[in-house]
Design brief:
CATH class: Mainly Alpha
Largest sheet: none
Keywords: Kinase, Membrane, Transferase, Transmembrane, Transmembrane helix
GO molecular function, one term: kinase activity
CATH topology: Arp2/3 complex 21 kDa subunit ARPC3
Order of helices and strands: HHHHHHHHHHHHHH
Distance between the termini: 79 Å
Protein name: Histidine kinase
Organism: Nocardiopsis gilva YIM 90087
Shape: globular
Helix content: over 70%
Strand content: under 5%
Oligomer: single chain
CATH architecture: Orthogonal Bundle
Radius of gyration: 31 Å
Number of strands: 0
Structural class: mainly alpha
Length: about 325
């Protein structure tokens, strides 16, 4: 019976990342004619759409293959948070996104790969079901989830100020990633009226479509992602600590606890293990104690010399002999 050949997860993630990076460099460095002409459609749009979606799909496939059950059960909740918050924001017309809170939440709990997969899946489902314009931005969500896990691993989420700083840094990177998508696929237009107005302002200042889209991202994304990090940290800290301890990544890297606390916890674990060893030794001594006690009661030691055993495990005769020597 032929066996199905499965590619290792790291190979899929690496291939997806390489495709996304190549697509980004092609669009930004070479700047196809369709972008220069300001059409917003054409070969550049197709290349951007295909490159970003194929790359995101490979990352999703690679990340899902190594997800534990606890993370998989969290994905529907995180995706729902992303879609509901993002859709409400677009309907209200705020110049924000608010569609990455669930992505950041999973990235903090389960690591970079899980965060990237959550972000990509959110925009794919959102684009297929409600808002097709969200589909190409799955690449941006991949980067947000990836960086959320990286900053959590570095310990930036243990304190609120550093968590907000991580959100600002993530927003800057997200602006440079999403700028070409807005420019090449949508001609600088946005699903939110507030964000479209910001792009229009930068265009009136003399920036081209790509420059105005990146400038709009740099204006909005740092604030938006800092809000996402702050809300995710507040939610996770409000939950019982045993919830975050269910996730190996959060437990191993002490995502929400000071490193010293983690060290103390490990020290307690070592002490418990040592206590278990001591208990086994005590049990062994207790098992042999009745025989020694009986021998002592009879006035004899184990070899019949009549000397009482000492606390050091040697008989008094030996101690006395040692003293004389």
């Amino acid at each position: 019976m032929p066996t199905t050949r499965r590619y290792p997860p790291w190979l899929l993630i690496t291939a997806g990342s390489a495709i996304i990076i190549t697509t980004y460099l092609f669009l930004v460095v070479w700047q196809p004619e369709s972008l220069v002409g300001g059409a917003g459609v054409g070969p550049a749009a197709l290349i951007a759409l295909a490159g970003y979606l194929i790359g995101s799909g490979l990352i999703i496939a690679g990340a899902m293959a190594r997800m534990p059950t606890s993370t998989v059960t969290l994905l529907p909740i995180a995706i729902a948070i992303n879609i509901v918050a993002g859709q409400i924001n677009n309907m209200v017309g705020l110049p924000l996104y608010l569609d990455s809170i669930g992505t950041v939440l999973v990235g903090l709990l389960a690591g970079p790969a899980a965060g990237a997969a959550t972000g990509a899946l959110s925009n794919v489902i959102w684009g297929i079901s409600i808002s097709p314009a969200s589909l190409p931005y799955s690449t941006t969500q991949v980067v947000i989830g990836l960086l959320a896990g990286v900053f959590a691993r570095w310990g930036w989420t243990r304190r609120v100020p550093t968590a907000v700083a991580a959100g600002v840094a993530t927003g800057v990177v997200a602006a440079f990633v999403s700028g070409p998508i807005s420019a090449f696929i949508f001609g600088g237009a946005n699903a939110s009226a507030g964000r479209s107005a910001i792009v229009a302002v930068f265009q009136t200042l003399g920036l081209d479509t790509l420059g105005a889209s990146i400038a709009q991202g740099l204006t909005v994304d740092p604030l938006d992602k800092s809000i996402a990090f702050l809300v995710a940290v507040i939610i996770l800290r409000a939950l019982p600590s045993r919830f975050s301890q269910r996730f190996p990544f959060a437990r191993e890297h002490s995502v929400f606890a000071p490193r010293s606390a983690s060290v103390l916890a490990r020290a307690r674990d070592v002490d418990v293990l040592a206590g278990a060893d001591r208990a086994s030794v005590s049990a062994s001594i207790a098992a042999t104690a009745p025989a020694a006690t009986s021998a002592a009661a009879n006035g004899q030691d184990g070899d019949g010399s009549g000397a009482a055993p000492s606390a050091s495990g040697t008989d008094t005769t030996q101690d006395e002999e040692g003293g004389r020597l």
